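Bumping my old thread because nobody answered last time. Still need a sequence for this structure:
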């Protein structure tokens, strides 16, 4: 099995909190929540590179390898983290080549010879997804604080050069994003160039550390939108 980078103590502690939270949410029938997908942990290669990109979505929908998760949890907390991290890294490298998310990742890599799938750190704002669409309401609010703390810890541990949020705009998600990066919305720069048909107009970025780019999800995005995102990343890369 490849020697993928194991998370540091802070992330292991936070991921353990995610396992506890999942256990609570998956049995809290009184909350009338959809059964959440199994916890998602960020995937990072063992390769250390100054060219790293952290690509952050909203959540992973569906039962994200639930049977595997249930098998791991019977062993130990460490086994859950190790097995899920290895599986997610395998996905980064081998699966979903035709999905809009990973086609976008590959398009990002095409402008810089130093970038490839091993330079991508894959994460989500919500580590507990719902079976259908993205988490909202109680399922979202229940993990908001932990999501913010975990994203900050991931950025601290992995030290990406650029963080790209492909999350679109949602009031609750936006607040998590702003608090994580520590840059209020008024300090982000918004592109003047945008597609009026897009759910989220334009693209936002900040050159404060960490450098961050914020767009809508690539699914449904037009080719010229994605090209503009890539061009903006090219500019930010020089900072």
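Sorry it took so long. Here it is:
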């Amino acid at each position: 099995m490849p020697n993928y980078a194991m998370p540091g103590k802070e992330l292991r502690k936070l991921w353990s909190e995610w396992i506890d939270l999942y256990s609570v949410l998956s049995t809290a029938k009184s909350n009338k929540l959809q059964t959440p997908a199994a916890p998602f942990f960020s995937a990072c290669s063992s390769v250390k590179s100054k060219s790293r990109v952290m690509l952050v979505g909203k959540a992973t929908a569906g039962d994200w390898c639930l049977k595997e998760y249930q098998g791991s949890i019977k062993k130990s907390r460490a086994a859950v983290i190790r097995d899920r991290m290895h599986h997610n890294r395998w996905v980064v490298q081998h699966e979903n080549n035709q999905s809009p998310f990973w086609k976008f990742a590959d398009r990002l890599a095409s402008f810089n010879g130093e970038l490839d799938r091993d330079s991508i750190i894959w994460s989500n704002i919500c580590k507990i997804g719902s079976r259908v669409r993205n988490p909202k309401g109680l399922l979202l609010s229940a993990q908001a604080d932990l999501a913010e703390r975990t994203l900050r810890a991931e950025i601290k541990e992995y030290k990406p050069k650029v963080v790209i949020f492909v999350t679109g705009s949602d009031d609750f998600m936006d607040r998590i994003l702003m608090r994580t990066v520590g840059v209020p919305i008024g300090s982000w720069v918004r592109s003047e160039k945008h597609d009026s048909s897009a759910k989220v107009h334009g693209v936002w970025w900040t050159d404060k550390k960490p450098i961050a780019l914020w767009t809508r999800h690539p699914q449904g995005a037009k080719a010229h939108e994605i090209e503009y995102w890539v061009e903006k990343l090219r500019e930010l890369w020089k900072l």
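The CA atoms of residues 133 and 213 lie 23 Å apart. Let me know if any region looks off to you.
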